[in-house]
Amino acid sequence: MTGCLTGIRKRTVLLFFLATTVVVYGNTFLNDWTYDDVPVIVQNPDAHSLKGFVENSRPGRPLRELTYIPEYHLFGEKPAGYRVQQLAWHGMNGFLLVLVFGLLGVELPYALLGALFFLVHPLQSESVANLSHRKELLALFFSLVSLFGYLKAAALAGGRRVAFMAVAVAGYVVALLANETAITLPLLVILVERYGMPRERRILLRRPLLLAVAGAMAAAYLLYTFRGFIRPEQLLTVYSKNSFMASRSYLPLFMGSMTAFGFYLWKIVLPVGLAPEYTFRLAESFLQPWALLSGTLLVVLVTVMVRAARRLPLLSLGIGWFFVFWLPVSNLLPVAYLAADRYMYLCLPGVGLALAVLLQRLRSPKVEVGFCAVLLVLAVLTAIQNGYWRTEHTLWRHAVAVNPDSTWVQETVALSYLLTDETDKAVAHAREAIRLNRLNTRAYLTLAKAEERRGNLAEAVKNYEFFAAYGGMEYPSEAADVQASLPVLRERLALQKKNLQ
């Protein structure tokens, strides 16, 4: 990296990435709390003080909570102040990518272009625009710190090697405290040794015992961290989010995972129609064209990774980087959502590395100018996407246009319209949410409130009763409140019927 930055101060590169981040994501300073911001930050005592953090009343990602504490003291419940740190983490991640790419042998101009692709891609909007998703930013930052320390250690000897190895280990541990999806970082280190490092500098691959111990430790941590996901109930959780309750077998999940993989590739190439939640049509069948096509693309990419190893090893590394961080969010082991923009945050650096390697190999001014034009278009699309995160209303009303087949999106949009007193639209979306998933109990609550405002007490009582009967498991306090208010509503309904007679 030293040679890569000869005559150019690293500080200048850092300031360039921070400035670019502000230009592209600066409009998020106008945004309100959205998505999970309120429960994760505003209503979370663990994120307000060190005392609350120690009490740990809402276990979560501890590093993320620690970063909110100074912001809460400075800005309270004003989200704009939190954006400064949010954008800083993202800009520093772009800078660290330049350093890591340089250590791997990518020349500075191409390292900059590859890192800029990561920085301005619209898929990053969710992680940057939504403050509760800071966990992705932190996980990548410390993963890159770990990787940087490891690459430096491999090039040194003696005490300096030990010091940088300590940085690598510490970075990995802190990355896990930010987000457990960083668990597969050791696999990336192995790929770095295989595709980006001379044999004589390798540390793990030349020491099978050390590799075995490290692998066993990582596997043990993986099993412990994801132990809650190895349950039939978790499979059904994923299925319910996609309004699929026709089977309990693993096949629909696998085929859905393949479909999501192709979906990611498509959104990397054409990042429009992005939303905070996506659903897929699941089925217990191998004959699913999109899943089969996506699986074929996966096999093709693996083949390219293997075949390119001799002539373009860093291209293989870039593809491998993508796969390494896709695995924890692939839902091959059921996690939650089959696809989410934020899941690509740790994956996109691999795409940036692959593109940087190809640009360096081509060395074509016309191609480089064209790539810069693409970066400009991506930056504009990102700024537009940031605007959809302005408020809960703009976010979900855009989401329902993108993803009308999601019961949860329909339910949330219904609530949005209820809050703005557009009760007819609230009823329509709540009914659509129930049509998609008759067990979406919260949709019944929203529908009941909307019908009550419209004066349709019969429908209101019917839906309140359903929510009181079946919503208690997910929403116990709200179900109890509804149960307590039902006698009064029934009296009002009886009086209304009497007056109509």
Short key terms for the protein model shown above:
single chain, mainly alpha, 501 residues, 23 helices, 70% helix
Topology:
Elements: H1 10-25, H2 37-42, H3 50-55, H4 62-75, H5 79-104, H6 108-120, H7 125-129, H8 134-154, H9 158-178, H10 185-196, H11 208-225, H12 232-241, H13 251-269, H14 289-307, H15 313-326, H16 348-362, H17 365-388, H18 392-402, H19 407-419, H20 423-436, H21 441-453, H22 457-470, H23 476-500
Helix pairs in contact: 1-5, 4-5, 5-6, 5-8, 6-16, 6-17, 8-9, 10-15, 13-14, 14-15, 15-16, 18-19, 19-20, 19-21, 20-21, 21-22, 22-23
Any overview of this molecule?
The protein is mainly α. Helix content is 70%, strand content 0%. α20 packs antiparallel against α21 (441-453) and α22 (457-470) packs antiparallel against α23. The longest helix has 26 residues, at 79-104. The radius of gyration is 25 Å and the shape is elongated. The relative contact order is 0.09. The mean pLDDT is 92.
Mean pLDDT: 92
Q: What would the principal axes of the Cα set say about the shape?
A: elongated
- Proportion in β-strands: under 5%
Structural class: mainly alpha
The total of helices stands at: 23
- Could you give the distance between the termini? 85 Å
Q: What radius of gyration results from the CA coordinates? A: 25 Å
Low-confidence stretches: none
Number of strands: 0
* Biggest sheet architecture: none
Compressed to H and E, one letter per element, the order equals: HHHHHHHHHHHHHHHHHHHHHHH
The oligomeric status of these chains comes to: single chain
Q: Helicity range of the residues? A: 55-70%
